[in-house]
TrEMBL record, chain A:
Source organism of the structure: Eucalyptus globulus
Keywords tagged on the record: Pyridoxal phosphate
Protein name stated in the entry: Aminotransferase class I/classII large domain-containing protein
Family label: Belongs to the class-I pyridoxal-phosphate-dependent aminotransferase family.
Pfam family, one: Aminotran_1_2
From TrEMBL, chain B:
SUPFAM superfamilies: PLP-dependent transferases
Protein name from the UniProt record: 1-aminocyclopropane-1-carboxylate synthase
Domain Aminotransferase class I/classII large: 49-429
Pfam families for this protein: Aminotran_1_2
Species whose genome carries this gene: Eucalyptus globulus (Tasmanian blue gum)
Database matches in InterPro entries: Aminotransferase_I/II_large (IPR004839), Ethylene_sulfur-biosynth (IPR050478), NHTrfase_class1_PyrdxlP-BS (IPR004838), PyrdxlP-dep_Trfase (IPR015424), PyrdxlP-dep_Trfase_major (IPR015421), PyrdxlP-dep_Trfase_small (IPR015422)
Keyword Signal: no
Family: Belongs to the class-I pyridoxal-phosphate-dependent aminotransferase family.
């Protein structure tokens, strides 16, 4: 870690550098510190903090490892001298053609073939973090705003705003209708921006939603498309959890809705995808932007120079994702395993007297602890959260860090641990709930 | 308050619609000529030879051998796959500790172990391109400026300015003193900025220089340090060509200068590094920001989330750069091969009276074609450049695209091809000069006698007529890089 600063630097850094918009002082990250200092380990530290604040997918690595063991061409060894050299030199921002094609077809497969993706519209970035920031640079001027439904992924505060100077105005959703996005909520957010003299550049949705773990219904997508068309603003659909839907038929991508509309007005629509969640490869930094707008594709591609994907990684994934047998099996098995995890945690929580939002996707569940709050306020929620982290030793994410308008909701990740660890976590929750009853 | 355009299309940002991407410069025009007619020794021997791409292609056989002997360095092989899971999950923006340690050690090694680098100050970024943008975001606000000595790498116009809103102001250098960066020039540039009410936030120097291929001497580096300390502005040193120094004098890094005087304010100094040039791995996107300023390291690290190095690549690089024996051999071989290539070209050019700036580093030559210009103007330079592309069929980069103050200079890249192509390129240049020596407005007389020219030309002919034997270690030099078609 960087050394302690003894005195403030004598020269100024940029306003961006000294701002807090990187968001790392929020509780979302504070829980990590508790985990870092005392991490759970099945064997060596069974009473440590269990990490349930990290939306990682660790349930399907064996499938990837098996693929690698049987496909030497995925590494340099399988490609010989020319292969390595060409790959090491390849820095074209169009991306490796085989990789782009493989990404496009993988995205189609995940959507059960219900939408088509043209490889020429795929722009590659180093992770969805970079993709969301890049799209913001392309679509929005400084001082304008994205409308984002709450609750939303805490990282957006940094990704969409920090270096871009763009604002986020929340679209308020609440439990009365299971946090669905409604047209009145969209209109209200737009009016709120107007009243603050902020021009709205677009709407950014996450589908399936993080932190809710729920897919957006077709009719809501239609409403959102109608709204952005009326206002002539952009729509970014972050679909990075699309491969983590427990049942394929339940996910409707904005791509499908556009196809049904014969792509009318599609130049306003852009999709973000990544392999960090569906394939469990966050370290590889693989993000994509898929835009129906030619100008956006060209500009985004040029900008991707700042954040290209390592050609070594593109090569590996091109091999893997072009293997239809592998991808078909992976998508199915991964889906099934996530669903089983989800069902287990829901059952475990229910038997402890805790309900969650009915979810159908993602690597987490949206837990309702509002009945347990001393006070139905943000402070009350944070008090309960501190108990969770320091007494139960479970790092879960408080809804307030996701800008949820109602206190008492928590996001609990379940796919970043072994089945045994999940049982340990559930056991701790049971004990705690029992103690509360007596 | 809706913004409906007459054609009903949604607005894009100003950044999306301005020219900040800088792709309309002639620097990229030559690529189009190359793209549509790329040279190939057997399939297209009369195609355009790519000499506009500063790549280091001379040592791949060494790396390939290392990979074959170290399968565990790849997490995709049988030998390495047990690491796959841990590496694939690793997205910590501090980077793999072994990666940071290896890079710090390598950076020290490249500087002859005269300085030590602290692994905790290493921040990752998406190539040097990402690194430059990142450091700019950390140090300057929109509207602020960086001073940059000319001539400079055209990519800076995009990397430092496009999304940051920061501007570049030239520190004009002249061939009269070999483009030395003088205190006078620095002061002039600074004064101009002050007069125009522009806040200067820093000075960016590239050492070794692109496009000059020269290194900065100790005095110049000290002047730069004293200048930035006096003005209390930052110093960003782009040292991405540090290991391409192939001959004396030795490379002096700013890291050494910092140690010389305790009075220097270290918080002002930041180094940009990358493996794209020194190792020849531009595809792997390994960019590094090394700052002596703790707050910049902290902030930069957070920002690096937008351009982390793939953990798969970090792992491979960590393994490779930690192999002391391999690295020692690589650096020695690399310098030797670059020296040979440099000599081949400078000798060949000298034979037809073309002089290059005296250089001892880089992957290119800074060629003086002032004598070939009809008049000393940018237009004349552009005309000559078109002739070189269309008649001589070489994609070279005109000095104006590097903001050079004097027309007539051209950068040609010489390390991105094998020996065969080198000979073809030289032969074309020599033939062209020979053919057009009378027609071109030569201000300088060729100092070689006609006889010697004819003899040397015939020698080149012999070489071309002999069967082309492709070395198994240097396969077809067709650059896989395909530029955007706008």
């Amino acid at each position: 870690m960087a050394k302690e600063i003894e005195a403030a630097p004598s020269v100024q850094l940029s306003s961006i550098a000294v701002s807090e918009t990187h968001g790392e002082n929020s509780p979302y990250f504070a829980g990590w510190k508790a985990y870092d200092e005392n991490p759970y380990n099945e064997a060596s530290n069974p009473s440590g903090v269990i990490q349930m604040g990290l939306a990682e997918n660790q349930v399907s690595f064996d499938l990837l490892e098996e693929y690698l063991e049987t496909h030497p061409e995925a590494s340099f060894r399988g490609r010989g001298a020319t292969g390595f050299r060409e790959n090491a030199l390849f820095q074209d921002y169009h991306g490796l053609p085989t990789f782009r094609k493989a990404m496009a077809s993988f995205m189609e497969e995940i959507r059960g073939g219900r939408a088509k993706f043209d490889p020429r519209r795929v722009v590659l970035t180093a992770g969805a973090t970079a993709a969301n920031e890049l799209l913001t640079f392309v679509l929005a001027d400084r001082g304008t705003a994205w409308l984002v439904p709450t609750p939303y992924y805490p990282g957006f505060d940094r990704d969409l705003r920090w270096r871009t100077g763009v604002n986020i105005v929340p679209i308020n959703c609440d439990s009365s209708n299971n946090f669905q996005i409604t047209t009145p909520a969209l209109e209200a957010a737009y009016e709120l921006a107007e009243s603050m003299n902020i021009r709205v550049s677009g709407v950014l949705i996450t589908n399936p939603s993080n932190p809710l773990g729920v897919t957006i219904s077709r009719s809501v997508l239609e409403d959102i498309l109608d709204f952005i068309t009326r206002k002539n603003i952009h729509l970014v659909s972050d679909e990075i959890y699309s491969g983590s839907v427990f049942s394929s038929s339940e996910f409707v991508s904005v791509a499908e809705v556009l196809e049904a509309r014969e792509y009318k007005g599609s130049e306003r629509v852009h999709i973000v995808y990544s392999l960090s969640k569906d394939l469990g490869l966050p370290g590889f930094r693989v993000g994509t932007i898929y835009s129906y707008n030619d100008e956006v594709v060209t500009t985004a591609r040029r900008m991707s120079s700042f954040t290209l994907i390592s050609s070594q990684t593109q090569h590996l994934l091109a091999c893997m994702l072009s293997d239809k047998k592998f991808t078909k099996n992976y998508i199915e098995v991964n889906r099934t395993r996530l669903r089983k995890r989800y069902e287990r945690i829901i059952e475990g929580l229910r038997s402890a007297g805790i309900e969650c939002l009915k979810g159908n996707a993602g690597l987490f569940c949206w837990m309702n602890l509002s009945p347990l709050l001393e006070k139905p306020t943000k402070e009350g929620e944070l008090d309960l959260w501190r108990t969770m982290v320091h007494e139960l030793k479970l790092n879960i994410s408080p809804g307030s860090s996701c800008h949820c308008s109602e206190p008492g909701w928590f996001r609990v990740c379940f796919a970043n641990m072994s089945e045994h660890t999940l049982e340990v976590a559930l056991e701790r929750i049971h004990k705690y709930m029992e103690q509360r009853r007596t | 308050m809706s913004y409906v355009l007459s054609n009903g299309k949604p607005l894009l940002s100003q950044k999306a619609t301005n020219d900040g991407h800088a792709e309309n410069s002639p620097y990229f025009d030559g690529w189009k000529a190359y793209d549509s007619d790329p040279f190939h020794p057997t399939q297209n021997p009369s195609g355009v030879i790519q000499m506009g791409l500063a790549e280091h292609q001379l040592c791949f056989n060494l790396v390939q051998k290392w990979l074959e002997n170290n399968p565990e360095a790849s997490i995709c092989t049988k030998e390495g796959v047990d690491k796959f899971r841990d590496i694939a999950i690793f997205q910590d923006y501090h980077g793999l500790p072994e990666f940071r340690n290896a890079v710090a050690k390598f950076m020290g090694r490249v500087r002859g172990d005269k300085v030590r680098f602290d692994p905790d100050r290493i921040v990752m970024s998406g190539g040097a391109t990402g690194a430059h943008e990142l450091i700019t975001f950390c140090l300057a606000d929109p509207g602020d400026a960086f001073l940059v000595p000319t001539p400079y790498y055209p990519g800076f116009d995009r990397d430092l300015c496009w999304r940051t809103g920061v501007r570049l102001l030239p520190v004009v250098c002249h061939s009269s003193n070999n483009f030395k960066v003088t205190r006078k020039a620095l002061e002039e540039a600074y004064a101009k900025a002050v007069e125009a009410n522009i806040t200067v936030k820093g000075l960016l120097i590239t050492n070794p220089s692109n496009p000059l291929g020269t290194i900065l001497d100790r005095d110049t580096l000290r002047e730069a340090m004293s200048f930035i300390n006096e003005k209390n502005i930052h110093l960003v040193c782009d040292e991405i060509y540090a290991a391409t120094v192939f001959r004396q004098p030795d490379f002096i890094s700013i890291a050494e200068i910092i140690e010389e005087d305790q009075e220097y304010n270290r918080d002002l100094v930041h180094i940009i590094y990358s493996l794209s040039k020194d190792m020849g791995f531009p595809g792997f996107r390994v960019g590094i920001v090394y700052s002596y300023n703790d707050a910049v390291v902290e902030c930069g690290r957070k920002m690096s989330s937008f351009g982390l190095v793939s953990s798969q690549t970090q792992y491979l690089i960590a393994s490779m750069l930690s192999d002391d024996q391999f690295i020692e051999k690589f650096l020695l071989e690399s310098a030797g091969r670059l020296a040979t290539r440099h000599k081949d070209f400078t000798d060949g050019l000298r034979q037809v009276g073309i002089k290059c700036l005296n250089s001892n580093a880089g992957l290119f030559l800074w060629m003086d074609l002032k004598g070939f210009l009809k008049e000393s103007t940018v237009e004349a330079e552009t005309d000559l450049w078109r002739v070189i592309i269309n008649d001589v069929k070489l994609n070279v980069s005109p000095g104006s695209s590097f903001h050079c103050s004097e027309p007539g200079w051209f950068r040609i890249c010489i390390a991105n091809m094998n020996e065969e192509t080198t000979k073809v390129a030289l032969a074309r240049i020599q033939e062209f000069v020979q053919r057009n020596g009378d027609k071109l407005n030569r201000k300088e007389k060729c100092w070689q006698s006609d006889l010697r020219l004819r003899l040397s030309f015939r020698r080149m002919d012999d070489v071309l007529r002999s069967p082309c034997s492709m070395s198994p270690h240097s396969p077809i030099p067709q650059s896989p890089l395909v530029r955007a078609r706008t």
